[in-house]
């Protein structure tokens, strides 16, 4: 009996440490977890904080659970944490400050949940390199939500309900290589949409120059605003196929000088400006399933030959 009381007492103290000693409002209630670096811990109540059993944790994986809100301090102060994966767990809200003081963090993957807003203060100033928010219900993204993420390379937001693009995103996030916004509801690309994206940057980890690839296919884009590409000169891929584009004006191209690969299939384009072909000659082979005029078809064929 004494041993049982001691065991229960240790468990009770552990719960207190998780939920109150680090001043977090509980986000987890008997939640089943898979932890790299703490295999003996099978479930969590309260929050993830640097108590003895968790300081070596490198992976947090939560699948098919019920975690409605990640509250401030939900995952905090873990010096060895590399990956956070929370999938299909009914997350409806991410409070500012839910992830803090995680010096080795590389990946956050929050797929197949139900949150509709990305707030300021959730991801800012984290060392995260890959951020995957696919298959949620995201409609609203704060203008500063993706600012000040110095190592951010891959941002995946496909299959949400995003209806707009903001040129205010990505301030002081200089290493972006992939922006995936496929399968959303974006209707236009505004002026200076990529003004805060370098387009090409040097990656010391691989000793190479890395180009940015932008995936905007399978949206509802009808037009590109004048100066849509002001503020950027060179980048890698621009995928705009399977949208509703009726025109691409020369004015929309702004300061753009070179794109390695542009795809425009399955739109409503009748022609494209010569400047676009100069920027990306490969585009001529990615114009199928558009109602091109006969004049433009002849012109394209002459350029291909």
From TrEMBL:
<keyword id="KW-0732">Signal</keyword>
<dbReference type="Pfam" id="PF13855">
    <property type="entry name" value="LRR_8"/>
</dbReference>
<dbReference type="InterPro" id="IPR032675">
    <property type="entry name" value="LRR_dom_sf"/>
</dbReference>
<dbReference type="InterPro" id="IPR001611">
    <property type="entry name" value="Leu-rich_rpt"/>
</dbReference>
<dbReference type="GO" id="GO:0005615">
    <property type="term" value="C:extracellular space"/>
</dbReference>
<dbReference type="InterPro" id="IPR003591">
    <property type="entry name" value="Leu-rich_rpt_typical-subtyp"/>
</dbReference>
<protein>
    <submittedName>
        <fullName>Uncharacterized protein</fullName>
    </submittedName>
</protein>
<feature type="signal peptide">
    <location>
        <begin position="1"/>
        <end position="23"/>
    </location>
</feature>
<keyword id="KW-0433">Leucine-rich repeat</keyword>
<dbReference type="InterPro" id="IPR050333">
    <property type="entry name" value="SLRP"/>
</dbReference>
<keyword id="KW-0677">Repeat</keyword>
């Amino acid at each position: 009996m004494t041993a049982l009381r001691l065991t229960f007492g240790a468990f009770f103290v552990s719960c207190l440490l998780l939920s109150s000693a680090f001043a977090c409002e509980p986000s987890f209630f008997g939640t089943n977890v898979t932890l790299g670096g703490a295999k003996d811990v099978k479930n969590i109540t309260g929050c993830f904080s640097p108590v003895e059993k968790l300081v070596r944790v490198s992976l947090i994986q939560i699948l098919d659970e019920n975690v409605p809100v990640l509250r401030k301090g939900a995952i905090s102060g873990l010096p060895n944490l590399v990956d956070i994966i929370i999938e299909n767990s009914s997350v409806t809200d991410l409070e500012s400050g839910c992830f803090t003081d995680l010096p080795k963090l590389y990946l956050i993957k929050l797929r197949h949940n139900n949150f509709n807003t990305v707030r300021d203060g959730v991801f800012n100033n984290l060392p995260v390199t890959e951020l995957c928010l696919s298959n949620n219900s995201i409609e609203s993204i704060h203008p500063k939500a993706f600012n000040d993420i110095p190592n951010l390379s891959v941002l995946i937001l496909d299959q949400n309900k995003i209806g707009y693009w903001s040129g205010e995103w990505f301030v002081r996030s200089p290493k972006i290589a992939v922006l995936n916004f496929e399968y959303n509801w974006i209707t236009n690309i505004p002026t200076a949409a990529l003004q805060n994206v370098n387009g090409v940057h040097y990656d010391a980890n691989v000793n190479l120059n890395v180009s940015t690839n932008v995936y905007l296919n399978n949206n509802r884009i009808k037009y590109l605003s004048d100066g849509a590409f002001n503020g950027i000169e060179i980048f890698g891929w621009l995928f705009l196929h399977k949208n509703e584009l009726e025109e691409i004006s020369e004015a929309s191209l702004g300061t753009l000088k070179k794109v390695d690969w542009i795809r425009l299939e399955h739109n409503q384009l009748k022609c494209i400006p010569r400047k676009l072909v100069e920027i990306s000659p490969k585009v001529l082979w990615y114009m199928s399933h558009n109602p091109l005029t006969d004049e433009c078809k002849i012109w394209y064929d002459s350029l291909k030959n």
